[in-house]
Specification:
Oligomer: single chain
Distance between the termini: 51 Å
Number of helices: 13
Mean pLDDT: 94
Largest sheet: 8 strands, mixed
Number of strands: 19
Helix content: 40-55%
Strand content: 15-25%
Amino acid sequence: MLTLKMITENRDEVVRRLGKKHFAPAAEMIDRVIELDLERRNSQQKNDALLAQINQNSKSIGALMKAGKKEEVDTIKATVSQLKEQTKELQEKITNCETEIRNILLQVPNLPNETVPEGTCANDNKVEKMGGKNPEFNGFTPLPHWELAKKYDLIDFEMGVKITGAGFPIYKGKGARLQRALINFFLDEARNAGYLEIEPPYVVNEASGYGTGQLPDKEGQMYHANLDNLYLIPTAEVPVTNIFRDEILSEKDLPQKLCAYSACFRREAGSYGKDVRGLNRLHQFNKVEIVRIDTPEHSYESLDEMIAHVESLVCKLELPYRILRLCGGDMSFTSSITFDFEVFSAAQERWLEVSSVSNFESYQANRLKCRYKNSEGKIELCHTLNGSALALPRIVAALLENNQTPEGIKIPEVLVPYCGFDMIK
C-alpha cells in the first residue's frame, strides 16, 4: 500500500509511475485520496481545538463551584455538552475519511521501479540473460511431458480428474520420488545459502491476505473456505511474510532470510488452451519459496542475491534458461520490480515460467505494518522481497522433455542422490 506521505508530497510522480502499469484510474483515485486527507486533517485540527476548549472549561468548573457560582457552572456544563457533540461529529468524519482512504489505497497497485521497461504485455518484457544449451535429439522426435508421464507411469492426470478435477494430478512411483527429490534439493540449497526453513500453514486468514496484497486484488483466484473465512494459500509467500505483520524489528537483525516448501492452490480462473496442458498450469502444485525482509538501503543487493540463487538452481539442473525483466504492464499488483525465470521446453518448443523474483519495496510492509528501528532509533518501513526457488510443475515438464532418450529419461547428476536412481526407464 502506498503511503500518504508519498502520495501527498509527490502526486504527479505517483500518477506518472502508475501509468507505467497502465492503471487507468490513477489520477482520479490519487486526487480523491489527497482530497480526503485534507478533509481529515482539517477536521482533526477543529477537533483538537474543541477538545482544548472542553478541557479549559472543565478546569474552571471546580473553582466556580467553590465560589458558589452555580448558574455559571450550569452554563459551562451546557457549553461543554454542546462541544462534545461537535467533537463526536468531527471524530465520525475523521474515521469515515480514514476508512475511505484505506479502501482506495488497497485498490491502488505498487509503483514500478524506474528501471522497469515500458510495455503492455509479456511480449514487451526484456530478456536480461540467457544460459544453458537447448537439447538436441538425433533419430527421434521428442514427446511432450504428458505423453512421457503416461509412457513411464509417472503422473496420472485422469485419476486426478476423477478424484478432484482438472489441474490436480496424481504423481506415482518415480514421478512422486522426483517431486520429493526436487523439494529436498531446493530446500537444501536454500539452507546452504543462509535461509531459515519454515513449515507454514496452508490456509491463512483475511488479514494475512490483505497484508501481502492477495486481497482484495486476487480474491477470485484463491480458494475460500467460507464457513471459517480462511483462504488456501496461492504461495508460501503469504504465510511466511505475514510472520512479520505488526512487528518492529531491529536493524541489526536484518535481513531476515526464510524459505518454505508448501503446496500452492490457485483457481486459475479464465485459463484455457494449450497453456494448461499437462503440468503447464495446475490448481495445486508444489513450490519452494524464498522470502527476505530488509532495509531500503540493502534491498536491491538482496534482490541481486536472490536472482543469483535461482539462477544457480536452474544451472545445476542443467536446464536452458532465460531471465526476463518484466515490463510495467506484465507486473503483479504488488511488485515494484520483477525478474522472471523461464526454462526451455524442448518438446513443446516454448519457454515455461518457473520463477518470479520480486522486490516490493515498502508496499507490502506498509500493509503489514512491518517496520524496523534504525541505528538512530527511528521507526521505518521495511522492504519485502520473495521468489520461487523453485516451482515444480514446469521444472518437471522441462526435465522430462529435455532429458528423454531412446533408452529412457536421464536424471540430472545433482538430483541422483535425492532420487536414488539416475534413469527413468
